[in-house]
Amino acid sequence: MIFSDYHTHTVYSHGAGTCEQNVLAAIERGLSRVAISEHGPAHLFYGVRNERLRKLRREVDELACRYANDIEVLFGLECNLTDYGACDAPGDAPAICDVLLLAFHRGVRLKSPFMRRLGAEALGLHKNDPVETANALLEAAGKYRITALSHPGLYVKSDIPTLAKGAAELGVLLEINASRVTMSKEELKKADELGASFLINSDAHRPNDVGEFASALNAAREAGVIDSVLNYVPDMPELIFLPGTAAAVPAPGAGFDM
Ligand SMILES: [Zn+2]
Ligand SMILES: [Zn+2]
Predict the structure, then answer these.
(1) What is the 3 state secondary structure string of 13-58?
(2) Cα 137 to averaged position of ligand 1 atoms, centre (Å)
(3) What is the pLDDT of residues 100-145, one digit of tens each?
(4) 4-250, CATH topology level
């Protein structure tokens, strides 16, 4: 099973649940670690910035204490690419954040010709060189000590072999996003061959989806890369969550002894 979820959103951006509801959902799923990873400050609509970001940090810290016996609660941030090799991680991000994700998102001010080209691609009006986009992300990932690149290839095409090779060199992970599996079977295989490691995350925008990994697990298995998923534990049962109950039950056919 997957023991951790490093990518969940809350009412601080456009998620439906509170931080505590996400934590409780993660406990019900049987996870041992969950991160609240809100959108970085440069996102015009969903970005969490300044005093709200500090308030969120305090809230996550309180939850980490309150539920310390049940689960590890981490503070993350899903940063936005803001230019070639740049993102909106605050200067002290590596010190204050446990997890840093990075992706291109729509809804970020397009301040440079490079970003305007990416913005045009996201609207289907232009095609960029996917290798250049991959390198733009990698340069930012290295500079800001990013943990994982979230949903690679969403909104703008990124050359996955370039991303995988660079990510492996930097020690950055590639996310297999369970809300939207963005890499094809062939891309996952190739990334694995090039030495990339993966994280499976839910990208939940409501508590019920925290720890919901089915589509990403299927994709990883079909591509034969499950052993390169760092938050996968092969000999633990897979749990499915039944909405409306507090009980996590073994998935049919999981075949395990406890
Ligand atoms: Zn995202
Ligand atoms: Zn997200």
Answers:
(1) CCCCCCHHHHHHHHHHHCCCEEEEEEECCCECCCCCCHHHHHHHHH
(2) 14
(3) 999 999 999 999 999 999 999 999 999 999 999 999 999 999 999 9
(4) TIM Barrel (3.20.20)
Cα(105) to centroid(ligand 1), Å: 6
**Which pLDDT does position 240 carry in this prediction?**
53
How many whole angstroms separate alpha carbon 32 and alpha carbon 73?
9
How far, in Å, is the centroid of ligand 2 from the Cα of 253? 31
CB within 5 A of ion ligand 2: which residues? 78, 203
Residue 80 Cα, ligand 1 centroid: separation in angstroms?
Answer: 8
With a cut of 50, list the residues of the chain below it in pLDDT: 242-243, 245-258
Residue 257: predicted pLDDT: 40
How crowded is residue 158: how many other Cβ atoms within 10 Å of its Cβ?
28
Question: Ligand 1 centre and the CA of 254: distance in Å?
Answer: 31
pLDDT at 258: 36
C-alpha 211/C-alpha 241 separation (Å) is 9
For the record, the structure tokens of 248 come out as: 């996590």
CA distance 181 to 202: 10
Which ligand is in closest contact with the Cα of 35? Answer: 2
Alpha-carbon separation of residue 69 from 22, 53, 72 (angstroms):
16, 25, 8
pLDDT computed for residue 114 by the predictor: 98
Distance 172 CA to ligand 2 centre (A): 17
> Phi and psi (nearest 5°) for 184?
-75, 170
Ligand positioned closest to the Cα atom of 104: 1
